[in-house]
Amino acid sequence: MYDVIIIGAGVTGAMIARKLARFNLSIALLEKENDVGNITSNANSAIIHSGYDPVPGTLKAKLNVLGNSMFDQIADELDVHFKRIGSMTIATSDEQLETLKELKKRSELNGVPTELLSKEQALELEPNLTSDTKGALLAPTAGIIDPFNLVVHAVENAVDNGVKLFLDQAVVDIEYQNSVFSVKTTKDTYQGKVVINAAGLHSDEIAKMIEPIDWSLTPRKGEYFVLDHYKLGLVNHTIFPLPSAKGKGVLVSLTSSNNYIVGPSSEPIQDKDDASTDAPTLAEIRRQATELVPSIPFNQVIRVFSGVRPTPSTHDFIIGFAKSNEHFINVAGIESPGLVSSPAIAEYVVDNFVSKLFNLEEKKDFNPRVRRYHRLNELSEEDRNALIKQNPEYGKIICSCEKVSLGEIKDLLARSVPPTTVKGVKRRCRAGFGKCQGGFCSPMVTMLLAEHFHVSPTAIKWDKDDSEILVEEVKVL
Amino acid sequence: MKELTCIVCPRGCRLTIDDELNVTGNFCPRGAQYAKDELTNPKRMITSFVRVKNRKDTVCSVKTSCSVPKGKIFDVMNEIAKVGVDAPTHIGDVVIKDVLGTGADIIITKNID
Amino acid sequence: MRKRDLVIIGGGSAGMAAAIEAKKNGIDDILILEKDSVLGGILNQCIHNGFGLTEFKEELTGPEYLSRFAEQVKELGIEYKLDSLVLSITRDKLVTYSNAVDGVVTLEAKAIIFATGCYERSPGAIQLSGDRVSGIITAGTAQKYLNIHGYLAGKRIVILGSGDIGLIMARRMTLEGAKVLCVSELMPYSNGLNRNIAQCLNDYNIPLYLSRSVLRVEGKGRVEKVVLAAVDDKMKFIPGTEMEFECDTLLLSVGLIPYVSLLDNIDVKMSSTRGAMVNDQLETEVPGIFACGNCLHVHDVVDFVTDEGRDAGRSAARYILGEVKKTIKIKVNPGNGIGYVIPQYIETDLNHDITFKFRVRKPIKDVFVNFESNGEVFHKVIKPVLIPSEMVMIKVSKDKLANIKGEEISLYLEERK
Q1: Best mutation site among C87, C88, C104 for testing chain A: the one with the most A CBs within 10 Å?
Q2: Predicted interface score ipTM higher than 0.90
Q3: Which residues of A, range 435-454, sit inside 8 Å of C by Cβ?
Q4: Are A142 and A157 within 8 A, CB to CB?
Q5: Does A392 contact C177 at a Cβ distance shorter than 8 Å?
Q6: Which residues of C touch A455 (CB under 8 A)?
Q7: CATH assignment of C122-254?
Q8: Architecture of domain B47-108
Q9: How far apart are the first and last CA of chain A?
Q10: Which of A297, A345, C43, C396 is the most exposed place for a label (fewest CB within 10 A)?
């Protein structure tokens, strides 16, 4: 019997688990995928938005702004790349300049520091902006983050503080009898006093297991380009067009790994699992992005991807008790700005809901920090050598594009939320993230995983179920 | 008249050969021989690998010591699949002698220390 | 800081040839840094035959070809370090590498030769449409899984791109038990060698579809279906021409790109090949940094890589010994019909023969290759057929080069009437 069962180990579930891990509670975190943060949290713009843009008074506005302020500490405790590079929203006509002024007012209502820039000021900060630039709204608190490790490290920290993580378990049914939930998954049944529904794209289906709901989710797909490291200075901030009814529009940004990202599109789709990309959509993104930054070097594209987010019919995050059950908490419709809001959502959920159900006491031994990660590429030659002296595997480089060592991959495998797939390794340490996209290193990573888990290489997956990389061992004697 | 692409070297000459086995389009005499063989008894080199028994997930490349009849390619592949070697291996070591009576040996093409 | 006369980055065909030649030309203090655990680079996985016809007048497999050079490297006592990846270089020729034994070490080199080879264009780089599932793999990666480790990356395969590795893998995978359904090529002509179409596709009745590309990939966890469609002359898909293939794998052979981020990082001038611009000594714009082999421009025959490696080794030796004087600067421009030319500059003098290497933009028959300076053709060669998949080499004698006037020359194709 668990005090709390959290369904979904995306960024929302991860942050809630980590927040609850500081209290005297037994917690189970259930995830249907074979890795944490592998759906919506895995495929987004990775922007820590400033919060000037959500409608004042909404949960989105409140939690975005609060969440943004929490990230310096979170990134430090969880050892995740985070930089406040600031965002600039660009106006390219006099009409848009007027809208920019309204956005400035909105930012003031939301309590977000912003500054209106003239064309000259904007171009001085961002020389590669279109010469059609009329002005810009600078939001200095906006940042960029490594979204993969934000979730992985948050869950790792939760697990290190006692949370039990169960992967590969889709919830198929929930029963509530005698004040106890029985959460039935594809593999097992878990009993708990409180259930938190943080199931992302599927949170509507989970909510319906308790009661009929009066809200709905529309899956909305966004496609992106990722460019190689290229040269610094293409853009120094996250560059946005003016927001529209469809969202924040196609952005051009540096990423926390010094790549560049361009996107997203924003199209409602039917199939929640449809993460495909298509040429016409990408061509349209390219058209829109070059209107803002004409010189984007699209010959440096190393990857295209798409992410699907749950757009709520309410136009705001849906956070609260189920109508008929005060022990079931929905945390649904967490679309953009969900990533930045996630730590604030966790705090909001605990302060307003979980605290009403338990007498929360902080554990004395809670450790907010993950064990430090060694990122060889970021160390001085001296520190690197000290580490290689301790463990020569830090000297052997596996990924020659991103310069990731064998030691770093082995370290991942020894942690409390280890990767089991090639993509899991890639997301965590960037092996396979570079210009050859794993062409050179993926065979080594596959063989390494097979050896580590004592399985045949044919059992190693690229990502989800049925995504094995190799189909057959040839000439078995 | 039959048109062929010569596979003797990377040049890849476009050859024509008539019923009297007269060859044109060849840059070198080996091309003419190739075209004649191709009409009368087409042959191919086979390259493949054998398992290295004492190394995990490792194979060692092999080849036929000379061309074998084209029709026997998959039969020869089946024979290669039956054998393994132990490291170290040396280029030229014979793995199968006179495979299927073709006159070709299966020989190692890679040194594994 | 440890000093070295010559550091060679990459111990494949180009790097080994460069080392051997530099040694023969009087340089003793040579270090080869190889990232893999054996010498030979990509040839280790190229177990098919067809190598060495120029070099040895016999047909060898990749591992046999490389072993002849690896043995020479060892016999000549040339030092090499395996499992050693170069992390960075500077314009002052400091080379920092990492391995498990030495740790991270920075060396100061008098000269550096880049022989880092090339990498395969990825699905992302071609912005492949459809589901992002397992079973989409580049031909070279599948080749490594098969020929080094003994695993098939697919059983029912569609191949996109008719580059040589794709063709070679069509045959390799067929022989090892897979079914290759077809090869699809975006261009109206193949990018592979004729002999490979004959012996890798035709021998096994594998169809080659020209002017067709992948419209989309479908699947849940793994590829389940690939849809091809014809493209028009603007490379736009033509509706109604779709062909569906139930398969588990899409193998990509859509181009090779010089692997030179280390040069990129120090802003060395790059050419349209995406390798460095070099002069007649294969020297980049940074004095003492040379480039050769597939990291300079992608070759179709390894024998030519070896040859270029030797040229770079000789040039580096002369540079170290102080024998090279730069007396001129003539820019070599690719003109009508020419994709690229190497070298991009002539910088030493015009008193030596120079071999120009280039590729044409599209297949063409019956042309003159003209070398022009100051409006006058100073050298002219007749070529019956030129195709983009074959690198062309034309040696121009110093007598002809003596006619060059001005600071530019150009190479262009002229149709014969």
Answers
A1: C104
A2: yes
A3: 435-440, 442-443, 446-447
A4: no
A5: no
A6: none
A7: 3.50.50.60
A8: Roll (3.10)
A9: 49
A10: A297
Going residue by residue through chain A, which has 477 residues, state the pLDDT in tens, using 9 for 90 and above: 999 999 999 999 999 999 999 999 999 999 999 999 999 999 999 999 999 999 999 999 999 999 999 999 999 999 999 999 999 999 999 999 999 999 999 999 999 999 999 999 999 999 999 999 999 999 999 999 999 999 999 999 999 999 999 999 999 999 999 999 999 999 999 999 999 999 999 999 999 999 999 999 999 999 999 999 878 899 999 999 998 877 789 999 999 999 999 999 999 999 999 999 999 999 999 999 999 999 999 999 999 999 999 999 999 999 999 999 999 999 999 999 999 999 999 999 999 999 999 999 999 999 999 999 999 999 999 999 999 999 999 999 999 999 999 999 999 999 999 999 999 999 999 999 999 999 999 999 999 999 999 999 999 999 999 999 999 999 998
Q: How far apart are CA C341 and CA C372, in angstroms?
A: 14
CA nearest to A346, candidates A358, A357, A334: A334
Burial state string for C225-256 with b = 16 or more CB within 10 A and e = fewer than 16: bbbbbbbeeeeebeeeeebebebbbbbbbbbb
Sign of CA dihedral A384, A389, A390, A395: positive
- Residues forming a β-bridge with A309: A220
- To the nearest whole Å, the CA of B38 is away from the closest chain A CA by 30
* Any C CB within 8 A of A392 CB: yes
The nearest alpha carbon in chain C to A437 belongs to C122
List the single best residue of C43, C60, C61, C304 to mutate versus B (max B Cβ within 10 A). Answer: C61
Q: Which residue spans of chain C are classified as CATH 3.50.50.60?
A: 2-119+257-324, 122-254
Q: Which residues of A touch B53 (CB under 8 A)?
A: 477
CATH number of A1-83+143-216+313-372: 3.40.1190.10, 3.30.565.10, 1.20.140.10, 3.50.50.60? Answer: 3.50.50.60
Structure tokens at C237: 């898909």
Just list the catalytic residues of A. Answer: 49
Task: Look at the block and give the residue holding tokens 């690896």.
Answer: C70
Q: Which two tokens stand for residue A27?
A: 């917690």
Domain residue spans in chain A? 1-83+143-216+313-372, 84-142+219-308, 376-459
Cross-chain residue pair B4–C198, CB shorter than 8 Å: yes
Alpha-carbon distance B46 to nearest alpha carbon in chain C (angstroms) = 8
Q: Cα–Cα distance between A402 and A404 in angstroms, integer?
A: 6
C105 to chain A: nearest residue by CA? A381
